[in-house]
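Exercise 3.2. Students should predict the tertiary structure of the chain below and write it as structure tokens, then compare their answer with the key that follows.

Predict this chain's 3D structure.
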Amino acid sequence: MEITINWYLSLSAILFVIGVLGVLFRRNVIVILMSVELMLNAVNLTLVTFSQSMGDAAGQILVFFVMSVAAAEAAVGLAIVIAIFRNKLTVDVTQINLFRY
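Answer key:
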């Protein structure tokens, strides 16, 4: 049994939808950051799939740039979460309101 391009694209779409649902319905900042990472990985899977099917390496090169941006986003995001947690003692998005006095 050969796995076609449709299977990879379906898996990518499912992973992306799970990530979007995690961002929309979760309140924990760490879970939201993990959901964003899941969406970025779904995009990476799509890029690699189209790159393989078209025989071009440009998509695979672009994946490395997306991975580096995702790593930087995770590092900066986690640093911000730690800084907010030290002041507010919570990681619940509904409890964090930095624009009010």
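Discussion points: The chain has three helices and no strands. The mean pLDDT is 92.
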